[in-house]
Write a structure and sequence with these properties.
Blueprint lengths: L2 E6 L2 H12 L3 E8 L5 E7 L6 H12 L23 H12 L4 H14 L5 H13 L13 E6 L6 H14 L4 E5 L7 H12 L3 E3 L3 H9 L6 E5 L8 H15 L4 E8 L4 H10 L7 E5 L8 H8 L5 E4 L10 E2 L2 H10 L4
Helix pairs in contact: 3-4, 3-5, 4-5, 5-12, 6-7, 8-9, 10-11
Length: 344
């Protein structure tokens, strides 16, 4: 008797995999839980029983008189309406809708799953592969000997300052020379918060009250590898403030290469995310960063919007820890967010 190991995210999924891989007669010997919550089954393949008893029964059945046929039933009426959805595809649909995925994305993924022929528990794997290729991922800027200025823009309260500090912490640990600057002169304590991060990381911090001052700071930062710029949170409806922000960033671009990252809160509604994407388009964002992934189980709208921003999704944030809660966006992580509503 050969024993096989089968894994699934749930007992139902593990049993379906066992049935698909080893047939309807597969025998489950034991069940246990993995460290990540998956279910592990030990399965053996049953051999078809063969004995004289069954032979006798078969012979007796053959020798028995054949009963008269029943009267023919009238033909069933043709089925009206769509056929029931295959269970595996149905599971994919439920997962995507639960994470807030738009109807357009749901149908595209299901079309790919159907075309692949994947059924049952294997449908989720086909969906993950499709989503992994569907989400656009931005590449990190590479050190080329010049100072790289990076501005963080986005609505109020999305976590721009904390995200900037997380990236600064990562760069400092990698041995990069980093400077911090804020253009936020409206929020009480904005510079003090940035200065406290700078003191912790042992890097300089400055304040720029307009485009000319920001350009001057960028010009005298040629000795740094990266200049991280925190900007004032703006309402997507404040057109005047957004125009001022775009002009200030253009002033800095005149003196140093400048990247702009749009920071979006994954916990925001689809409507709020769409308004932010439109409003901050004037800042020419080259990539998007998703924050507050730990505060929602429906991150799909943010992923869809981030995927359409600049080159795509760059970083994912799921907590406040400066050292731990900033990760590079990967295809596998994006698929997990769509299908499980959280990072692996």
């Amino acid at each position: 008797m050969r024993i096989h190991r089968v894994r699934g995210r749930s007992l139902a999924e593990a049993l379906e995999r066992a049935r698909m891989q080893h047939g309807e007669a597969a025998l489950v010997l034991s069940q246990e839980s993995a460290d990540n919550g998956d279910v592990l089954l030990s399965v053996s393949e049953r051999r078809q029983a063969s004995s004289r008893v069954f032979e006798k029964l078969s012979t007796a059945a053959t020798a028995a008189p054949v009963p008269a046929p029943l009267p023919a039933r009238p033909a069933a009426a043709p089925r009206v309406g769509p056929l029931p959805e295959e269970p595996g595809a149905g599971d994919v649909r439920v997962r995507l809708l639960r994470s807030g995925t738009s109807a357009a994305w749901v149908e595209r993924v299901l079309e790919t799953v159907s075309a692949s022929g994947a059924r049952g528990a294997f449908a989720i794997d086909a969906a993950a592969r499709d989503l992994a290729g569907r989400v656009r991922l931005a590449s990190s800027p590479r050190a080329d000997g010049r100072t790289r200025a990076i501005a963080f823009v986005g609505p109020t309260g999305v976590g721009k300052t904390t995200t900037l500090a997380k990236l600064a912490s990562r760069l400092v640990r990698a041995g990069r020379r980093v400077g911090l600057v804020t253009t936020d002169t409206h929020r009480v304590g904005a510079f003090e918060q940035l200065a406290s991060y700078a003191e912790m990381l042992q890097c300089p911090a400055e304040i720029a009250r307009g485009g000319d001052e920001l350009a001057a700071v960028a010009a005298r930062s040629a000795h740094l590898d990266a200049l991280l710029i925190d900007t004032t949170g703006r309402s997507p409806g404040d057109a005047e403030a957004l125009t001022h922000l775009a002009r200030s960033l253009d002033s800095a671009r005149a003196t140093t290469p400048l990247e702009t990252y749009l920071v979006l809160a994954a916990s925001a509604s689809r409507e709020a995310l769409e308004r932010a994407a439109v409003a901050f388009a004037s800042a020419n964002p080259s990539a998007a960063i998703l924050t507050k992934l730990d505060e929602t189980r429906a991150p799909a709208p943010a992923l869809e919007l981030a995927s359409a921003t600049g080159e795509g999704v760059l970083f994912l944030c799921d907590g406040q820890d400066l050292a731990a809660h900033l990760t590079r966006a990967t295809a596998e992580a994006a698929a997990d967010l769509f299908l499980r509503g959280r990072l692996p």
